[in-house]
Amino acid sequence: MSEQVEAEFVECEVSLVRRAGRDVFWVELEPVNGELPPYKAGQYLMLQLEDGSLRPFSIASSPLQDVLELHIRRLPGHDEADKIISQLKHQNRVKVQLPFGNCVLTDSKRPAVFIAGGTGFAPFHSVIKTALWKNTNRDLILYWGAQTSADLYLHREPNEWSSKYDHFTYVPVLSGLDEEWQGRKGFVHHAFLLDHTDITNMDIYIGGSEPMVMSVYQDLLDRGVSKDSIHSDILDIKRDMGQLD
């Protein structure tokens, strides 16, 4: 577990809001004073909304950058996401509080596996990019699941990483109907379990919705993976609330 740093508020300029995929927006925030609080790849922030309430978003940018990048998904029937996107488009400045979370890359030399669903890829975008930029000598394996190829909103970037770095592997998996897709199909973690018979010597990170995370978590436990080797913000929050051992 990473050492906790006290979270602080930062005023940021909204420098970019653009559509990155079918229903995902890429947002960039630049600190007004030019400096960001120290944080680690894989952590998240709280975005202050117009009514003063706070909403969590994974930080998709690297701590080596001087900008905060968010991947925000708009879901049908979820008005709040529309309101957040509208706020970011029409307000020049917002406040964020950071850092939060412990889902960061450990110092282990074991292979690190990232199992992501949808925008659950966002924190792993930060972790993997930072590790590659730092020339971390460790196998990094990304399984990114989505319904259709359009939902793999940054598909080209991990493809480029896999071509450039021998120790990085990228496996995209689609669970929905996509007639043109020639790659892997099914549930993303099932693809991982099919590809690897011995997964007890890996550090495994899970990002996605709560039902997805809990399903993957249980299947990993059933395959003999220790709880200490499975990392997710959702799991940490549930433990803090006494809902998980």
UniProtKB/TrEMBL annotation:
GO molecular function: oxidoreductase activity
InterPro entries xrefs: FAD-bd_FR_type, FNR_nucleotide-bd, MRET, OxRdtase_FAD/NAD-bd, Riboflavin_synthase-like_b-brl
Keyword Oxidoreductase: yes
GO biological process, one term: bioluminescence
A Pfam family assignment: NAD_binding_1
Homology family: Belongs to the Fre/LuxG FAD/NAD(P) flavoprotein oxidoreductase family.
Protein name: Oxidoreductase FAD/NAD(P)-binding domain protein
Classification of source organism: Bacteria, Pseudomonadati, Pseudomonadota, Gammaproteobacteria, Kangiellales
